[in-house]
Structures are given as structure tokens and as C-alpha cells.
Amino acid sequence: MSRTGRRLLTTLLLLAAARVTPAQEVLLGRVGPEAILSISPEWRRNLETYEPAEADIRVIASTPVKARLDVYFGSWCSDSRREVPRFLRILDRASPARLKVRYYGLDRTKKEPARLVRRGAIERVPTFILRADGREVGRIVETPQTTLENDLALLFQKAAVSPP
């Protein structure tokens, strides 16, 4: 086999091992939920099959706090592939009226878009950052401690009792 052939085979094997197709696009910057769900059928399937705990959904839905949640993720990342669709399902079920959500796609090195990475002090993805009254209440990085909805409910409870 030629040197070029070996390189091509190696590249294809690495892409297959990472479950990425050469045409798969990396989402960068601010994006919407539909762009996230269109990354691949697996992202939409992960949303459709997730059933969050109803008790945590009630806590999130009834939060009195006006807050913003920034979601930093990688369209190439397996943790993001699992957690971000779950988050979208949680939002769909809870529909917190006083919550604004923004989604930011990052590159594989988590260095671009640079302004976003610096602003959020992002080291791992996904990272969910809850802010209320202009301050960070807390964050969930990479994987939740319990379940995503429970960790989010705890952050909302913390925001409700923390002084501004």
C-alpha cells in the first residue's frame, strides 16, 4: 500500500473510532436548539428518549429567579452529545418562564471562538453556567454529579436563596 493510501486509511480509521464523518460540521459560536439537534440523528434521538425526573422538573419550572444559562458544548464531543439533548428535553418539560438560554459551540481544542472561551473560562464541554443578578450561581462541567435535571434544580434553588 502506498504512503498516501496508508494515511487515508489511518485518517478514516481515526474518524470511525471517534464516530465522526468527514462531512460532519463543527458548530462554532452562538447557535440555536434546532442547529444542535441537526448535528446528527443521534442528538435528536437522545432528546426524544430522555425522561427527566418529574420532581426536579417541578423545581426548575417554578423557579422565581430571573436567570441566564449559558451552554458551552462541542458538536464533536460525546459528553455534549449525551447531555445537551437531555438539557433540551428538561427545558421542554419545565419551560421556566424567567430563564434565558444561550448555546455556544466550541472547536475541538476549546480555544475558538476565543472570546467565548475566555468569557466562560471553559476547560471542558459541555459546561452549563447559571447566572442570576449578573453573577455566576454555579456550573455543571462535563458530567453532572447526580442527574442533569437534579443538578440544575439544585442550582436554581441556590440562586433563589443566594443574596444578589
Give a structural overview:
The protein is an alpha+beta fold. The chain has a single domain (26-161), classed as Glutaredoxin (3-Layer(aba) Sandwich), CATH 3.40.30.10. It is 46% helix and 18% strand. It contains 7 helices and 5 strands. A 5-stranded mixed sheet has the order 1-3-2-4-5. Strand 4 (127-132) and strand 5 form a beta hairpin. The chain is globular, with a radius of gyration of 18 Å. The model is unreliable at 12-23 (pLDDT under 50).
How is the CATH topology named?
Glutaredoxin
Straight-line distance between termini: 66 Å
Our count of helices gives 7
- CATH H level, superfamily name: Glutaredoxin
pLDDT averaged residue by residue? 87
Order of helices and strands: HEHHHEHEHEEH
Helix content: 40-55%
Radius of gyration: 18 Å
Give the biggest sheet: 5 strands, mixed
Number of strands: 5
CATH class: Alpha Beta
Question: What is the CATH architecture annotation?
Answer: 3-Layer(aba) Sandwich
Low-confidence stretches: 12-23
Q: In the residues, how many domains can be counted?
A: 1
Placed side by side, the strands forming the largest sheet appear as 1-3-2-4-5
Give me the secondary-structure category.
alpha+beta
Strand proportion, as a percent range, falls in 15-25%
Shape: globular
Write the layout of secondary structure elements.
Elements: H1 3-17, E1 29-31, H2 33-37, H3 41-49, H4 54-61, E2 67-73, H5 78-94, E3 99-105, H6 114-120, E4 127-132, E5 135-141, H7 148-161
Parallel strand pairs: 2-3
Antiparallel strand pairs: 1-3, 2-4, 4-5
